[in-house]
Fold:
Amino acid sequence: MITPKSTNDLYNEYKAQMRKIADVKNASAILQWDEETYLPAKGAAFRGQQMATLSEISHQLFVEERLGNILEELKARNDLSEKEKRNVELNTEDYLKQKKFSSGFVKKMSEAVSKSFHSWIESRKQNDFSIFENDLNDLLQLKRQEADLLGFENHPYNALLNEFEKDCTVNLLDGTFAEILQPLKNILAQIRSKPQGDDSFLRQFFPKQQQWDLGMKIIKQLGFDFEAGRQDISEHPFTTSFNNNDVRITTRINENDFSSMMWSCIHETGHALYEQGLPESEYGLPLGEYTSLSIHESQSRIWENCVGRSMAFWENNYEQVQQTFSSQLGKVSVSEFYHAINKVQPSLIRTEADELTYHFHVIIRYEIEKLLIEGTLRIHEIPIYWNEQYEKYLGVKVPDDKHGCLQDVHWSHGSFGYFPTYSLGSFYAAQLFDYAKRQTADLDQEIKNGNTKPLLEYLRKHIYQYGRMYTSEKLLEKINGEGLNINYFLEYLLQKYGNIYTF
Amino acid sequence: MITPKSTNDLYNEYKAQMRKIADVKNASAILQWDEETYLPAKGAAFRGQQMATLSEISHQLFVEERLGNILEELKARNDLSEKEKRNVELNTEDYLKQKKFSSGFVKKMSEAVSKSFHSWIESRKQNDFSIFENDLNDLLQLKRQEADLLGFENHPYNALLNEFEKDCTVNLLDGTFAEILQPLKNILAQIRSKPQGDDSFLRQFFPKQQQWDLGMKIIKQLGFDFEAGRQDISEHPFTTSFNNNDVRITTRINENDFSSMMWSCIHETGHALYEQGLPESEYGLPLGEYTSLSIHESQSRIWENCVGRSMAFWENNYEQVQQTFSSQLGKVSVSEFYHAINKVQPSLIRTEADELTYHFHVIIRYEIEKLLIEGTLRIHEIPIYWNEQYEKYLGVKVPDDKHGCLQDVHWSHGSFGYFPTYSLGSFYAAQLFDYAKRQTADLDQEIKNGNTKPLLEYLRKHIYQYGRMYTSEKLLEKINGEGLNINYFLEYLLQKYGNIYTF
Structure:
């Protein structure tokens, strides 16, 4: 007779397997980090192969029958804690989802991504979308197949959206974007009817080392733990985490533009504070992971925009900027500086867009993805459609594909459904920052005094500690009884720009 | 009826599995590199776990029954090329060896190493061997068990020696060390009877950045390919390779001692040139790996000593050293510099020893290991025995364990049998350098002209390209019809020091 395993033993077995998988995934993330920071040129070929092998291994470990059986057995136990129950529930969902993909499909996808990423690089270099077309089309067909494998209601794009943001649907996004579009246009029109301030002083020569040192000071001041992370230089800024005690951010420095480094530093710090604040004891389990991409983005946006582009923050920090760059900014007042870093101007490049017009960039990509996935827009039609939309939404003429539909890496990675989380993140950020201000004494004054700790404490308490315990919507509801409400974001824009542009 | 697989298909299957294993091992090496260069302090705990997981996975992949069957079937085929045959033969040996270790034993060993490494760190910090004793003893007992599992003839130490250097035995080493001991003592006595030159100018203040820049220049000049590798800073210099296109070296800089950085740079470059020169097509297979540890060490020693401490090399390079450090070395002639960097002086620390007395350090460790493995010396007896031997061989009094038996990391890693390869490496280096000079036109003159390329070409042709095709001894025989011959090394010492100390 076999004595059934105790729930505790069974849970530990499950945990051990999940941690093993996390070790492999994190090893892969370290290889990726190294690829973007320190890898010598010729090392790229083998590196790709090494990462593919690790992906294959972690997928195999995750879809092992044995894990499925343990999860099933654990689901039947009634002596799990709430947290344990939630871990099992989420991993069961993930497990059943991964099971839908055969090894062959996973491999095919990974090869298609790799091919398409390289042809994207090449097509950007040559500024010619047609080089990208075929590989992107192959990838798109695989993503449509993925949607079919995953299953969906109403729209195939829902399956892919759900991969990045649980419970996110075309219905929901159509509604949200439709609701916010006209108000955004109205605010923009008001801004454009006013005199536009000067921000040219941001584009002087700012030496690399001084920018780096200043960035490091700001990051530290915001609460990034350098004992549990580091910053390096890479071509595109990013945050990566190998566990909450090793969270790494990167930045890039443009010596001819002060903005490039500073707000990427603050943005990535926002992501990193979240990762450093996730519960260590839940390493490898869902409750040790971030809630969702939109909540992750909300954390970066709170720090980058709500804090990092606020008057309160610069009232305290502008002095050291001026001291560092006295010849460049000695005669620029804090108010002029504040206006410049908040200048609104429709533009071509998403990552350089202001807080308002940013969302037109996202909406355009969202619309295109939806059409591609349903099959009503074809890959070769992207450039023309893209340019029309930029004219329509932003009133700008796209000169070439590099400044148009080739600017973002996401599609080459097969990340259809990712972009909307950027907008959701901004909307959530304004909402959460509003809550934080209401629920924390003198938050603005504290920031003015250079003390952002109360905000960090607030986010730790209400967000970081929970990992994936709640969905984005549930997490918001838990704090203030309501889900996503775009009025917070609109109110935030009206206040800020009404003040800057006086309307 | 099942058609048997073609040899080609079978070989490709074998190759794919070996490459997969190599990917995992190399991923682990990347994590290790990161740990020693950039890891934030708090990241160490999870990093250890992540690397342990990868080791477990690569071990499991290697001992898979399926791989054993493929190897066995391939051994029976008679249409393999010579190289393929050799790969299969070597991997079969490795496979059968690994099979002797149960997963339980591998795990136990890995835990014992980790424990013992940490207590070594602690015991060094507190300068107290007793802190290290128990864990080292546990590890020693496991190593003795390992020897039993592996099997051996004559002496259990042979099993462990063979792990680092194929076909190396106590018999062979006893003979070699006995043969070289008296001649070394004689040369040392002659040196000590002469006036000892001044080398104090090497211990002035040499700023970090200038040392770094100089080191980088020298490394480049020696032929290190920076497109296929990089140099970083770590506490202990080392070389690591993730494939021949990504070979990394590290150095350390002591601002109060010029020697610390310079010869570690050249030493590691020697290792790295070998790794960069291994055949890419054999990635993951024995023929893509270095011949043996002693041959690897011979490559570092050729560059560090035969080249990097030669008059020819500095006749060409001293000028840039003087230009960089004009206030420190402006009045020191190249001849004074050459004498100083070759000063012979019995000392306490192996890694700082000169080319001659270095081997007494190795012999002492070899004798201790032999006694420990046979069980005639016990762990707690090490310090007293160590100090007696240092007095006996080197005539120096060991002031404490930090400058004595705690100085090296190897035992804490369980690396019993590693040290002898350092001496063998030096002996092989002198022998190979002698061959290179005889078989290459004007090698000395070329080095004097700053052209070390002919030497690199020689090593590529006679060593790098072969990987593990031949054993150390066979490789030497192939070049000049003889195996290890210590007279080359003795002749090298006599020439060099006879000239410097005039005897």
